[in-house]
Amino acid sequence: MSGTLALTRLEIRRALRNRRVMFFAVMYPVGLYLLIGSTVSGTASNGVSAKAYVLIAMASFGALGAALTTNATKIALERKEGWTRQLRLTALPGGGYVVGKVAAATVITVPALVVVFGAGAATGIHQSATRWITAFLIMWIGSLAFTGLGIAIGYGVPNDSVQMVSMITYLGLAVIGGLFVPFSGTMAKIGAVSPSYQVRQLGTDAVNGIHLPAHGLMILGAWVVGAAALAAVMYRRGAAEE
User: Fold this and answer.
1) pLDDT grade, residue 225 (50/70/90)?
2) Alpha-carbon distances, residue 210 vs 53, 127, 172, 234 (angstroms)
3) Alpha-carbon gap, residue 166 to 67, rounded angstroms
4) Residue 202 to residues 53, 62, 158, 216: CA-CA distances in angstroms?
5) How far apart are CA 234 and CA 28, in angstroms?
6) H-type alpha helices, 65-161
């Protein structure tokens, strides 16, 4: 247990000190929100505020990047350098490495959401603390699906292809989730089965005080559980191959 805690603390410190990660997870989404949010007004889908839609979309974009691409590329690099193989020679429990990665991604997601939310509040989106906290918790917990996918890609894809696959997944989920342009009709129905769509939609509903649909919560919950299971399978397979 002590070994797992020590590694977890190390992973969190490394993530927080990584300027590239902090930029793409925090400053980039804030910049996009300030740029796009300043040009929109009125209402978006479901009659919610267009500015609030952009706010939650950019927060989702930051959480997606922090949880998915960071884990995938770091794991691939550490596998290539033999770091994971060295850890297996220590007394560290088999899942300790994964626990550290999950914890680091979870911590990085906090500023990715909080800073964007703060920018929204500072630019005229005034909601109750309950709505902000509900939106944060839903998106924070939902981002575990992205974390699981990042770990699965890091272990399940050849090292030289991880960056390409993670970026394709990153941008694909961002597009299909309506993080750049909201969809309607058939595309919205297709996107509704993705975790990025549900994180964005449920977060938008929460911050606007709209009743959270049970089916959306179930879809997002299924993605969190499924991605965690896939990450575990890919980790065990990667361990067997090294």
Assistant:
1) very high
2) 13, 12, 27, 38
3) 11
4) 11, 16, 34, 7
5) 30
6) 70-81, 83-87, 96-122, 129-142, 144-156
> With b meaning 16 or more CB within 10 Å and e meaning fewer, what string describes 207-235?
bbeeeeeeebeebbeebbeebbebbbebb
Task: Inform me whether the pLDDT recorded for 206 exceeds 60.
Answer: yes
pLDDT of the residue at 2:
58
Q: DSSP letter at 62? A: H
Q: How far is the C-alpha of 115 from the C-alpha of 137, rounded, in Å?
A: 14
Looking at residue 21, what is its pLDDT? 72
pLDDT above 70: percentage of residues in the chain = 85
- Name the more confident of 16 and 4: 16
Two structure tokens written together for 194: 């993705």
pLDDT of residue 238 exceeding 70, the answer is no
- Where does the pLDDT of residue 106 fall: very low under 50, low under 70, confident under 90, or very high at 90 and above? confident
Cα–Cα distance, 199 to 205 (Å, whole number):
10
Buried b (16+ CB within 10 A) or exposed e, 87-109: beeeebeeebbbbbbbbbbbbbb
> What angle is formed at CA 125 by the lines to CA 132 and CA 203, rounded to 5 degrees?
40
